[in-house]
Amino acid sequence: MTQPAVIRRDPPALSPLRTALELAAAGLPVLPLRHGKVPFGNCRTCAAVACGGRPNMKDAGPCQCPGPCHAWAAATTDPSVIASPAWASAWREAVTVAYHPGGARLTVVDLDDTAAVAWARQTLPATRIVPTTRGEHWIYRGAMTSANKVRPEVDIKSRMSYARWLGPGTGTMTTLPDEVRALAVKEPSPARRPHVVTVAALGGGGECRHRTPVYLERGIAMAEQRITEARSAVHATVYRTFLAVLSAHGRCGCLTEAHMARLFSAAQAKGESARHCVDAWANARAALGM
Questions:
Q1: CA 227-233-239 angle, 5° bins
Q2: What would the mean pLDDT of 146-155 be, rounded to a whole number?
């Protein structure tokens, strides 16, 4: 796909329709936005979310309506649709253009104030940056699930979402990093917060799949290394690592208090509290039905 940087002119100098056609030619699925930076409302056919037979628009893919309905689902690169009579009235009222990042296999990290920008500069790998009214858009190559409020004033816009076109930005676009993917990982709310977790309840008695202690030792060592090497999203990394360890080693009774203590120590060395370690361990067990 041709990268958006091919659009060199200042977008505000162009009409929304002309900007949209140029972006579509560069591979970005586009849609018009009206005042308030929001999409146009659905047509009568789509008002009951019956268009295309996809209730709640949970399926990926464009809306089948000829008009710009269902926000991100209307985004397209087809110039015959963009310039069609069905879209004409929307373009006459449009104040700007948006695009569907996921449809272009892109992810936008929307940083909505200076504090969020400062956090990104310290935490995330460098990539293409587009200035916004209050902050910056950091654009990575690769799509993921969109998520709002992953941190204060930080949203992720990719699949089933849209972002305003604010210009090509500066810098080299890089591959979507694990640090961004981890931001969308949500830990399950703990059903309870035990003060003490014992391995006696891990399940024990199941058939041991390890065959040799070396297999278990290697798994624990790899888990310690993963936690130790985490550069960001430590909470999510600790939880996912605990989940992986329990999934592989938690049901046969071979996992001991000593193994758990090693994992907790690695997490605490990265700044996690003992209470969070306990909660993350309990949440991982609950997720696995243990």
A1: 55
A2: 91
